[in-house]
Design brief:
13 helices, Aspartate Aminotransferase, domain 1, 2 domains, 8-stranded mixed β-sheet, 4-stranded antiparallel β-sheet, single chain, 394 residues, Aspartate Aminotransferase, domain 2
């Protein structure tokens, strides 16, 4: 019933099931960006004429909306970035590089693995990885043992696995980490599309946010930084918009968040992100979760009726993504055939090669849903899958 709000579905016959990669955008998000470019396109935080003031006000409105949306304490704790990848790299290079040990989980996206390698960290040499069991559950016993051996570490974990939809208990992870004086950053790329998050309740130190996976524009994101760390962190980059005073001998920086937001930001994108947040507030997470959980369970039930299907986790403590394979078949072949039948999903390693290697597969077929998906989408997927399997003589 929500598809009417999203122009993509009026202009395409494709069954869109690749929401973990990016979500579709409601009309209000698109309209807000067009309005900025057509009616008051100006830079922010610089000029003081009317349109520039309007741009700045709408830009900063998104910061306030996001602060309230995730229940941060202050606007200063919200720093805009290009997305979760930049957010993680920012904190990795401006703060976490000073920690002897970084702890991640087995289900991390490459964006939360490669930055640590760039610091010359390797397994057992500055980098530790928490095990998962056969259901991809987070191994808390192993985590605590790592913390005991490496107190005052930097913990960086995903909230929801993009590859499998597994939800980690971030509150429990944070409580245990803080017990050993560790600092916690969360990759929340998949979070806001599915769940209400509360920084006061979770008590995390850093939380990375994606706009384009939350029904907003691409090229926009944010990092929540708990206030106590704002003065400890060095800017990732500097230049225009970050400074208070400059001479040829020295520079003084503004306070947060501006000292961390060098150069002209993606103004239209950030304004659009604000509209996405407003839209989600109108829909309400209670309604989102009722619809999405229903479709997610229906998807699982229908997939299980297909012979020779292989899953890697159950759907308890999971949301959004469902990954699977078929015995004796290559996932790429399935993806090619489904595309011919107007089914959009992702096949491959989903930027999570380490866990794929642990599972002894090259990749999976991933269906990832959002609250605008419905039973008809699932039915068309199942019909297409059965046709593809017949073509491949499965």
């Amino acid at each position: 019933m929500f598809k009417k709000d999203f122009p993509y579905f009026n202009n395409s016959k494709t069954v869109y099931l690749d929401n973990a990669a990016t979500t579709q955008k409601p009309q209000c998000v698109i309209d807000s960006q067009i309005e900025y470019y057509e009616k008051y396109c100006s830079n922010t935080h610089r000029s003081n004429f009317g349109h520039a003031n309007k741009a700045t006000i709408n830009f900063e409105k998104t910061r306030t909306l996001l602060k309230e949306f995730i229940n941060a304490s202050k606007n200063e704790e919200i720093i805009f970035t290009k997305g979760v990848t930049e957010s993680i790299n920012f904190i990795a290079n401006s703060y976490a590089k000073n920690f002897k040990t970084v702890i991640i989980s087995s289900l991390e996206h490459h964006s939360n693995i490669v930055p640590w390698h760039m610091q010359k960290r390797t397994l057992g040499n500055g980098l530790e990885v928490v095990r998962c069991n056969n259901n991809l559950d987070f191994d808390f016993e192993h985590f605590e043992q790592i913390l005991k051996n490496n107190p005052k570490s930097f913990v960086s974990v995903t909230h929801i696995s993009n590859a499998f939809g597994k939800i980690y208990d971030i509150k429990k992870i944070t409580e245990l980490a803080h017990k050993y004086d560790a600092v916690v950053m969360v990759d929340g790329a998949q979070s806001l599309a599915h769940l209400k998050v509360d920084m006061q309740d979770l008590d995390v130190d850093f939380f990375a946010i994606s706009a384009h996976k939350t029904f907003g524009p691409t090229g926009v994101g944010a990092i929540y930084v708990k206030e106590k760390y704002l003065k400890e962190i060095e800017p990732y980059q500097t230049g225009g918009a970050t400074i208070d005073e400059v001479t040829f001998n020295t520079s003084t920086l503004l306070d947060s968040p501006y000292k961390f937001e060098a150069g002209t930001q993606n103004i239209a994108g950030i304004i659009g992100f604000g509209k996405a947040l407003e839209y989600l507030n109108i829909i309400g997470y209670e309604n989102i979760q009722i619809v999405e959980n229903d479709v997610y369970r229906y998807l699982d039930e229908e997939l299980r009726k297909i012979p020779k299907i292989i899953f890697y986790n159950d759907i308890n403590d999971s949301i959004g993504s469902r990954s699977f394979n078929f015995e004796g078949l290559v996932h790429d072949d399935i993806g090619i055939l489904l595309d011919k039948m107007n089914i959009a999903l992702r096949v491959g390693h989903h930027c999570a090669q380490p866990i794929m290697k642990q599972l002894n597969v090259k990749g999976t077929i991933r269906v990832s849903i959002a609250f605008y998906n419905d039973y008809n989408d699932v039915s068309e997927l199942i019909t297409a899958l059965r046709k593809a399997l017949q073509m491949l003589d499965a």
